[in-house]
Specification:
It contains 8 helices and 9 strands. The chain is of the alpha+beta class. Strands 1, 2, 3, 4, 5, 6, 7, 8 and 9 form a 9-stranded antiparallel β-sheet that branches. Strand 5 and strand 6 form a beta hairpin. The N and C termini lie close together (10 Å). It binds a DNA duplex through strand 4, strand 5 and helix 7.
DNA sequence: GAGGAGATCGTCT
DNA sequence: GACGATCTCCTCT
């Protein structure tokens, strides 16, 4: 529950949940602009906040899948005990030490892939973890990729149903067919890339900041960013 | 709705 | 061999 995770002084996500955006199950993307590498060449905290409201777009032979980024977490690099880069460069995390704007995908708990984007200049580790998307384009294909059965047509209009598609790092990666083998090291800013981040002009009204979740080390730092009131952010019990 | 526990396997030491 | 930036099922209230 986010409200329990929020330290005093931060926006309470629970209160903001009262205004709920309607699901936007579009059939295609409108006019969008791809982000440039410079966008990611800065502090992961600024990138994590700025990414909210942007679109994560996956192009596949069967069509486009896209979701609005509603939740991110910043990982700061060598000085961040929770970051994969804290132990230094390895074969697994090499992307974090590379140029900004590239996908760092890792496999966790034997079941799940998680997508990050590298930040800061070449040689300086830092990244942002994508934690949740609001499905925008290709919703049915995403449910298919997740192995979720659509019992009734009206399910695709229910927030409680749509939330199961991509609220959580593992769910989100599965919905967009993201895997380490296929996507790790891929540029998210190249026009030729099949996995990109784009701006469609959406403006975020309020950003909530809470401690990161699902981690033990450096768990107290407020480095999780989410669109206040958005129903598609991931929920997780805090013990 | 909330909490507990198992599944599952790549990566690192 | 241990750990882990998760998810889902099952049980209890």
């Amino acid at each position: 529950m986010e409200s329990r995770a929020s330290p005093p002084g931060h926006l309470a996500a629970g209160r903001a949940r009262t205004h709920v955006a309607p699901p936007q199950n579009k059939s295609s993307l409108g006019r969008v602009t791809g982000l440039k590498a410079e966008f990611f060449n800065r502090d992961p905290r600024r990138v994590a906040r700025a990414l909210l409201g942007k679109l994560l777009v996956r192009k596949t032979p069967r069509g486009v899948l896209a979701g609005r980024i509603v939740e991110t977490e910043a990982y700061l690099g060598k000085n961040d005990a929770a970051a994969h880069a804290t132990a230094g460069k390895t074969a697994r995390n090499a992307v974090l030490f590379g140029p900004p704007g590239h996908a760092y995908v890792y496999f966790i708990y034997g079941n799940h892939h998680c997508l990050n984007v590298s930040c800061l200049p070449d040689g300086v580790p830092g990244c942002v973890l994508f934690r949740a998307l609001e499905p925008v384009v290709g919703t049915e294909r995403m449910t298919d990729a997740r192995g979720i059965e659509i019992a009734k047509e009206i399910d695709l209009k229910k927030i409680s149903f749509l939330k199961k598609i991509s609220s959580g790092p593992g769910r989100m990666a599965e919905a967009l067919e993201i895997t380490r083998k296929r996507d790790n090291g891929k540029s998210l800013v190249s026009q030729r890339s099949d996995l990109r981040i784009a701006d469609d002009g959406y403006r975020v009204r309020r950003v909530a900041v809470t401690p990161r979740i699902g981690i033990v080390k450096s768990a107290e730092q407020p480095l999780r960013y989410l669109i206040a009131g958005n129903p598609f952010v991931s929920g997780r019990r805090v013990h």
